[in-house]
Each structure stands twice: as structure tokens, then as C-alpha cells.
Amino acid sequence: MMKKYICTTCGVQYPESNSEPEHCLICEEERQYVNPDGQSWTTHDDLVASGNYQNIIKKEEEGLYSITTTPKIGIGQTAYLIVNDGFNVLWDCITFLDAETIAFIRSLGGIQAIALSHPHYYSRQVDWAVVFDAPIYIHRYDQEWIMEPSESIRLWEGEEIELSEGLNLHRLGGHFKGGAVLHWKNGDRGKGVLLTGDIIQVVADTDWVSFMYSYPNLIPLPAGKVEEMAKKVMELPFNRLYNAFHRVIKENALLAVQRSADRYIKAVDGELFDT
User: How many domains does the chain have?
Assistant: First the structure.
């Protein structure tokens, strides 16, 4: 019987096949990892049938909802739904999609676009796109990491694309070459919001962020790349920043990114401390 298998470690779904894939290409690359107990797979039908999972939907601020699955599936990231003047955007994606989640999102006007920060959060993006009849926006630089092809996928190029008025994707690179952030101009009462996945990662001290090539394997980015990312962000007006794990910089997020980049650069250049 043909099934769409989902990697239990990263939550990314693969195309229909008669048997479990031998490898998860996402997890075998150094920015992810294969579970020490070995590669394992599940299906969405199995997740639903277990009765163990549900999505927690929370209104974060006017026009913004977070969607997080409990207990955790795969990496455990949070997706965000921006409700913006009749054009709703799902930022990043999660694996679990049940009837209750579908009904709630439809009550808010559905989804007009799905936008992804990077491949670790592709999850079941194709099935979400089919349910809500929405295009998926992925930067062309990350095309090779699309495990489940679809006519719904729109590969964008360059450094910026406008999804709708006041909603723009910006390529920063770093964690992945096509790594993108979403700028929501009208968020935070018009002060601006930046949603970053973990292209820019809010750290334990939520007054700061950091940057990484591989988070699970602790491989840093070059100082020059982080400087370039910070300069691109400097051009965007925003006061608040949300990452992929429900961490938020509520005020003065633009300044937090700049001083964090400065600290990062000094650290990797050996100027911040002497050990």
C-alpha cells in the first residue's frame, strides 16, 4: 500500500512509496542528525489514529496566531498564521494537521500563501497547501532539499519578494543559502514584526539572538556572513521578533539583532574574551 512516510526525527514528509525510505536526506546532512537509535518513520494517519497529538493555537497579538503540536513531533517548531487584510500567510509549517486546526484556520479566512524559512520546517507543507489551496514559497537556492515535489511550490529568486502589501520575504542565507525571514510591516500595532524561524535564533536570554550553520551540531557561521545578515536586517523596520520555538523579543528587536551580531563577530574573531 502506498503511503507518505514522515521522518520521526525532523518531521519532513516524503512522496508516496510502497515501503519506508532507507534514508532521510534532511537528517543525514550536518545541519540535522540521524537519531542515535536509528532512522524511523511514521505516517500522518498513524499520528492521528494514536489520539496522542493536538495542535495548540494561541493568539500572540492582533493578527498573529502560533500553532504548536503537543507532544512534540520531529523538531518541534512553531508555525505562525498572519491574518492580514484578507491575505493570510502561514509562516513555516508543522507536521500535524487535524480537523480542528483546519476548521479554526478556515474560520479566520483560510491561508492564501505558505512561506518557508528553510528546509527543516518543510514538514507536510504539500498537504497543507492542498487542504487550503495555497501556493508554497521557497527560495530557489534551497530547491535541492524539497523532498516532496508539488505544483503548489513557487520557487522565488533574488533577495526579496512581496507576498502581499506589507508582507515581504527577505533572503538572509546563513543557516541555509536560501534562508529567509518574513517581514510583517503592520505587525505589533504598526511597529513591524520579523518572523525568523531559526535563520535568526532567539536565545535563552531573550534580549539577544544568535546565528548558526548547524544548531544540533554547533557549527558556527563565519563572521562576515553574520555581518552581512545584520546589514540586510538593518533596512527593515520592526520592533518585535518571533523565532520558531516560541521565543520572542517583544521590544527593540532590531537593536537586539544588531548588538547580537556585533557580539557574535567579536566572539568568533577572538576579541570578546580571553580563555
Answer: 1
